[in-house]
Design a protein that fits this description.
By secondary structure, this protein is an alpha/beta fold. Helices cover 22% and strands 18% of the residues. The chain has helices at residues 11-16, 49-55, 61-64, 103-111, and strands spanning 68-72, 82-85, 88-91, 96-101, 116-117. The strands form 2 sheets. It has a 3-stranded parallel beta sheet, covered by helices on one side. A two-stranded antiparallel ribbon has the order 2-3. It is globular. The two termini are 26 Å apart.
Length: 120
């Protein structure tokens, strides 16, 4: 088996034949697709040990607001505007965005201690 991973792929790529399979964070509006639910996604804040040693570990959302964050964004992933824990929802407040882009580059930014990744 041979495959190629794409960091930005949506239902239009499936319909046009550019991709055979896509994991989407939304339900596509196209009727000509076969859909499988793979469950509810969950993201945990991630940071390198070096970042936490230098800037400290946030223990609350208020403490997280003082840190640089790494967020996933792109065609299919708008930047998060809230954080959820159980039934609690709070506005996502942060000092600055250290990186916004695809998950592959976001992982690299986290490993380089650029900030705390919130949605990899």
């Amino acid at each position: 088996m041979e495959f190629e991973l794409l960091s930005e792929c949506d239902h239009e790529d499936i319909l046009s034949g550019r991709a055979d399979l896509a994991l989407l964070p939304y339900r596509p509006p196209a009727r000509d697709l076969v859909l499988w639910s793979v469950g509810v996604g969950m993201n945990l804040p991630l940071a390198s040990p070096e970042y936490l040693k230098t800037f400290g570990t946030p223990h609350t959302l208020e403490e997280l607001a003082g840190h640089a964050v790494i967020v996933r964004s792109g065609r299919n992933d708008p930047v998060s505007v809230e954080l959820c824990r159980g039934s609690e929802r709070r506005p996502f407040v942060y000092k600055k965005i250290a990186f916004a882009g695809d998950a592959i580059c976001g992982k690299a930014a986290a490993l380089l201690s650029c900030g705390i990744a919130t949605d990899l």
